[in-house]
Amino acid sequence: MRDAPTRLTRSAAVAGATLAVANLTQTGTAGYLALLLGSLGLVGLLAAVRLWREGCFESRLLTTLVAAGALLGTLLRATVGLPGTPVAATGWLDLPAAALAVATLGLLLADRLRRGPSAGSPTDADRPYARGRAADRARRGGRRRDRPSPRPHAGP
């Protein structure tokens, strides 16, 4: 589903791209952390470019996942520490990276709330297999009137 990029979408793309570059600059250490941050930065950069150009659902989802992953990683590194190492002091890039992740998530959420429900999302009446709501069942007397009762009537 492609929506025209709005100002909020493009702001989220800029914040996501900056977060991806911040993740790529933290890959100086060797080992699994460099691989994780490098892949997170590369995927985040590609998703931010796609979000800027297309504004599609896939780019929003990837940008959201990258920002949430970066925020979770920063918080875990600051509180629990990396596996096999004690809790270390946060680096100079950790606080701006966390702020960029929060800004990216906030901008994407604000854009989604401003757009409202998408044109392709079905309502209760449009869903073919949706169960009736309680008010509809009460209005109908508890069962559907367009079908015969599944139980045979007890005759006299």
Helix content: 55-70%
Radius of gyration: 24 Å
Molecular shape: elongated
Average pLDDT, rounded to a whole number, is 79
Strand content: under 5%
- Poorly predicted residue ranges: none
Distance between the termini: 59 Å
Please report the number of helical segments. Answer: 5
How many E strands?
A: 0
> How is the main sheet built?
none
| Strand-pairing-aware structural class | mainly alpha
Order of SSEs, N→C? HHHHH
Structure in words:
The protein has 156 residues and is mainly alpha-helical. The chain has a domain at 7-115. Helices cover 59% and strands 0% of the residues. The chain has helices at residues 7-25, 32-53, 57-79, 94-115, 134-139. The longest helix is centred in the middle third of the chain and has 23 residues, at 57-79.
Q: How is this fold's topology laid out?
A:
Blueprint (H helix, E strand, L loop, with lengths): L6 H19 L6 H22 L3 H23 L14 H22 L18 H6 L17
Keywords: Membrane, Transmembrane, Transmembrane helix
Structure characteristics:
single chain; 156 residues; mainly alpha; 5 helices; elongated; transmembrane helix; membrane; transmembrane
Brief rundown of the structure:
Keywords: Membrane, Transmembrane, Transmembrane helix. The protein has 156 residues and is mainly α. The chain is built from five helices and no strands.
